């Protein structure tokens, strides 16, 4: 693993080149170190989850270098524009509706209709600018660990899971960004963080809703979140006539030739590729007329844990789905 000085031009060039090639790089931000990958590249995003060892897909923050880039990703309402103009670059993340044509891969949003965006201060912003694409970056620690504020913390937590760490010294803020969601029903504090709640409230001249302890919204954790409208049948060992099939690996299931439709998460049985394809396949099979979707078994290790977690949620019973009525 390489640890390179963020002040050097050559470091920023090397980091940008790796990121453009779909590799991961740990980058310093003013809040904590992030494990960054090209947010538009499903395989890069899958590698982030893999490196963190997370058993589920949590939506990630897309880091931007300019207001223009942010507007390509999300619908910036007037409150969001105002907050961004005041606090970016800085420790504030905004959760907003995904914009039409947003290039961020659905694995980074965990399939949600909203996306978290932030413009970081320091060398990461310059590296995003060089890459020319948004970077997805959760804190650069193994799942369940403490967010790292030095390059040494990152090396200790992720070890050989990360090939390059850009060393920018100690993170100035040392706390993750404050997350605010601005929507039609109000302005919510989803996660307290490096920008004090009062600073936002004083600036807006109003109180934020929600927040405090337990204020984090965990959209990916809702049991039936992001499920296709059809019934999902997991660990199928054979395909019944009329069923759609989500396959994994090269082995055909008995009855597969009678499937009404077929998509393979990864013909070679590669879990990184399967993760990158998962949300797109679920979305494609969320269509009128698709009543039952059989899913071939996916191995319960590595990224397979997160893939299966998400598939179980997709298969969970849903008593009420207002958005589908
Ligand atoms: O300071 C930070 O925000 C750092 C640096 C690297 O930028 N990043 C960070 O990322 O803390 P992460 O992945 O550790 O935390 C992001 C949080 C998660 O709790 C996630 O659930 C939430 O943001 N989140 C992301 N997208 C969301 C969305 N669309 N709606 C609600 N919450 C979302
Ligand atoms: Mg984290």
From TrEMBL:
| Primary localization | cytoplasm
Tell me which residues bind L-threonine: 31, 137, 177
**Residues holding ATP:** 54, 58, 63, 114, 118, 139, 147, 191, 226
Q: Which reaction does it catalyse?
A: L-threonine + hydrogencarbonate + ATP = L-threonylcarbamoyladenylate + diphosphate + H2O
Which SUPFAM superfamilies does this chain map to? YrdC/RibB (SSF55821)
Cellular localisation:
Cytoplasm
Annotated InterPro entries: DHBP_synth_RibB-like_a/b_dom (IPR017945), Sua5-like_dom (IPR006070), Sua5/YwlC_C (IPR038385), Sua5_C (IPR005145), T(6)A37_SUA5 (IPR010923), TC-AMP_synthase_SUA5 (IPR050156)
BP-aspect Gene Ontology terms: regulation of translational fidelity; tRNA processing
Single GO MF annotation: ATP binding
List the EC numbers from the record.
Answer: 2.7.7.87
User: In this protein, which residues make up the domain named YrdC-like?
Assistant: 9-195
Q: Which residues form a coiled coil?
A: none
What EC class is this? transferase
Keywords annotated in UniProt: ATP-binding, Cytoplasm, Nucleotide-binding, Nucleotidyltransferase, Transferase, tRNA processing
Q: Name one GO cellular component term.
A: cytoplasm
Known function: Required for the formation of a threonylcarbamoyl group on adenosine at position 37 (t(6)A37) in tRNAs that read codons beginning with adenine.
Family of this protein: Belongs to the SUA5 family.
NCBIfam families linked: L-threonylcarbamoyladenylate synthase
The protein, known as = Threonylcarbamoyl-AMP synthase
User: To which species is this protein native?
Assistant: Aureimonas fodinaquatilis
Organism placement in taxonomy? Bacteria, Pseudomonadati, Pseudomonadota, Alphaproteobacteria, Hyphomicrobiales
């Amino acid at each position: 693993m390489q640890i390179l000085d963020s002040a050097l031009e050559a470091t920023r060039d090397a980091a940008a080149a790796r990121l453009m090639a779909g590799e991961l790089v740990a980058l310093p931000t003013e809040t904590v170190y992030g494990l960054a990958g090209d947010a538009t590249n499903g395989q890069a995003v899958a590698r982030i989850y893999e490196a963190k060892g997370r058993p589920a897909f949590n939506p990630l923050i897309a880091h931007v270098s300019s207001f223009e880039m942010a507007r390509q990703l999300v619908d910036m309402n007037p409150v969001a524009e105002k907050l961004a103009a005041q606090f970016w670059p800085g420790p504030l993340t905004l959760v907003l509706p995904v914009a039409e044509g947003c290039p961020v891969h659905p694995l980074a949003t965990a399939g949600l209709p909203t996306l978290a965006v932030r413009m970081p201060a320091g060398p990461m912003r310059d590296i995003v600018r060089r890459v020319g694409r948004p970077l997805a970056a959760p804190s650069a620690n193994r799942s369940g660990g403490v967010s790292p504020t030095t390059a040494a913390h990152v090396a200790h937590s992720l070890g050989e899971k990360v090939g390059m760490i850009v060393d920018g010294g100690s993170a100035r803020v040392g706390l993750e960004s404050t997350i605010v969601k601005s929507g039609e029903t109000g302005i919510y504090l989803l996660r307290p963080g490096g920008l004090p709640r009062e600073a936002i409230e004083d600036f807006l001249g109003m109180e934020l809703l929600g927040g405090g302890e337990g204020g984090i919204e965990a959209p990916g954790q809702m049991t039936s979140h992001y499920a296709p409208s059809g019934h999902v049948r997991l660990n199928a060992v054979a395909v019944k006539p009329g069923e759609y099939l989500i396959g994994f690996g090269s082995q055909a299931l008995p009855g597969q030739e009678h499937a009404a439709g077929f998509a393979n998460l990864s013909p070679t049985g590669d879990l990184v590729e399967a993760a990158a394809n998962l949300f797109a396949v679920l979305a494609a099979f969320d269509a009128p007329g698709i009543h039952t979707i059989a899913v071939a078994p996916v191995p319960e290790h590595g990224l397979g844990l997160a893939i299966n977690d998400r598939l179980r949620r997709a298969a969970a019973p849903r008593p009420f789905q207002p958005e589908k009525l």
